[in-house]
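Extended Data, panel c. Modelled sequence:
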Amino acid sequence: MKAARLLEELGLPLEPVEAFHRDVVVAGFGREVTVSTPPGEFAIALVKRELFDHRLLESAVGEGAEFVKAKVSAVKVSDSGVKLIGPGEEARFVIGADGANSVVALTSGVRDGWRREDVIVAIEGSAPPHDRLIFMVDAAPYGYGWIFPRSEDSNAGVGGMSEKSREIMEAFREFSSRFNVRMNGSWIIPAGGHGKPIARDRVLLVGDAAGLADPLTGEGLYYAFRSSLEASKALESDSPAENYSERMKPILEELKAKRRAARLIMPRMKFFFELFVSYPEIARRYMLSSIGKVEFRDFWRWAISRVPRALIKSKLGI
């Protein structure tokens, strides 16, 4: 929802959309809870990335951008500009939007490689149509499984912290057998950008190149759009790298708070999920934070203060 709202503010409606979902089922350990968004809102929208990405490209070209297809093997930064090794192009500034294994980030020296604790591992595939959108918190160690119904099938998979990558592979095998999931691919999702530089000199990093995925869910589109917007605004300043880093401070602080929460919750998923089910207001407020109606920091502070009450309700079975 946050990503769609930001796109609309930029004059880029979220389309084409295969499915909108207001209701989210969170299930595991023999229990489940359903959370719904307020009227007029949605929790998750599903798009075909190749069509969606192509539309964004067409919009950029329509606004005057020049599209050049080339392989960049490195970037070299000097006092006067940045040279792209491969295509031989030069520019005053470069925005690195080249994904988790960013060539721009590593060869420019803005940051070093990811540590294992910075990375989420995800394995994704296609499954038959499903009647509910479900997150399964017991499907993978230090992570979760998901089934997202689309127009003709479902997107499905498992993901979790990279420290458990072998267990996550085994979890996917069990998950795919249970739900008839045909594997499409696996990838890493960097969620450690809040602790590393995201800009220096004439280079600014956005999205996965900057490690800006949500440490709790792995969602990255909102942070990719938001960082790209802030980077474009920063280029209008006298010191783009400094201006961009300053603009991104609130986002980095949010991701840092989510990282702390993930490190607390993921190893104790059953405990926290039982609290989640016993105290549905926690689930409702988390939903509001995920769609941008409540700041995560405010939600987390409120939720932690409710743990004793939720624990009592959980133990009493009320």
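DSSP finds ten helices and 15 strands in the chain. This feature is highlighted in the accompanying rendering.
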